[in-house]
Amino acid sequence: MAKNGLPNILFFGIDSLRRDHMSGYGYHRLTSPHMDKIAEEGVLFEDAFSPHIPTTPGYANMLTGLDVFGTDRVSLREPGPIMDEIPTLPEILREAGYVSESIGLDDRLCKGFDDYHGFAGGWGGWESRPLRKAEQLHAVAQPIVERFAQGDKPWMLFMRHMDPHSPYLPPAPFDRMFYQKDECAPGNDSMQPVWDFKPFAEYFKSWMPPGITDKDWVIAQYDGEIAYMDACIKQLLTRVAELGLAEDTLVIITSDHGETLYDHGCWFDHHSMYDPTLVVPMIWHWPGRLPEGKRVRGMCTLYDIVPSLLDLLGLDELSAKHSFSGKNLWELMRGERVANYNEIFITECTWMRKHGVRTQEWKYIEALEPDFHGFPPRELYNLIKDPEECDNAVDKEPEIAQAMHDRMMAYIEKREKETGRPHPIKRWELGTELSIGGVAQAQKLQAKKEE
Questions:
Q1: For the chain, counts of helices (H) and of strands (E)
Q2: Check: CATH 1.25.40.10 for 8-341+436-449?
Q3: Residue 7 DSSP SS3
Q4: 149-187 tens-digit pLDDT
């Protein structure tokens, strides 16, 4: 039963889930049938973006309703103190009587949950395959849900699934669900460029099959991870239904960012500001309170989630106490505007330090220092004519490039004035001598950024 008239909240904040590899978003492989079903019974946003890459700012945006200027979080590296002063979603909901816990999300990524839980199985190399990430997470989640069900308060459980995050090593049958060939067959050189990219080569060799030649095997493993996670999500939702909670539980599904696979030479990672990294799924489901089968067009962002959630819950007084960068998704859903944004300011501070602007038609990217890919310092793409972002039009369309640059600078100036702080990306210098190392080193880097 709903408690205090408020629903329970299952929040799936999945790491590295690429929107266009979900079958519900039109992907040719049936990767996400259970999440698709949730969308068919709820609301799916077709044009949702994570504007600030990578993980750290992504979750900050998702759980504060603020852009990168508001959170002061732009990098994987040690964040500034501003985030410690900002009310987060679990803290705001606590004022309404909620209890909240998170799994896989450290308190440095988002403070304010009543309890934090880790789970085993997120990392491992070729010799330790398969990785049962979702099963391990749900082994932690199910007892929490059962405990919540016995309580007298509304609750939120936030789950950071790591399945689409490399290493991609799903268990059977998902490891061969989308690939039946020999990944080590001679005569295929599609993996050679991957091995030639020295910053990542050691990492890939630590979890990919020895002698692999076919990049399609890697992509199939990523898709298998989504399908495996999707099946596990269905299992958890079945338990929620068995406990009699389904009708009174709001489900939110989204991701901190997408993933590049064999795109733009950003091999099997989530750096760059090309659309495979920026696009994310966004699905909301609440029986009887949200429309069924609603697909909503128009640009929206991760920082729209918090203000929209508070509005949906009817917590207007709480919402009025806080200022958000985000806009209301339900006004977009009702057709009161065609998009929440005509343009979004975008940043990346992972392995490269860049910022830019994306509209429905154009994307402008500007580097703040040279990157280890040797990409151009300025890039401009016509997303209508060139949706794959292959033809850099910065020299062909100098006036558009300048106009986009000016719009970017106007946004920066506006937000610096509003927050009284400089653009947070200016704190960092990355350089080009960067590398991941093997799986063990990558795990240490992940732990370090969440300390």
A1: 15, 16
A2: no
A3: coil
A4: 999 999 999 999 999 999 999 999 999 999 999 999 999
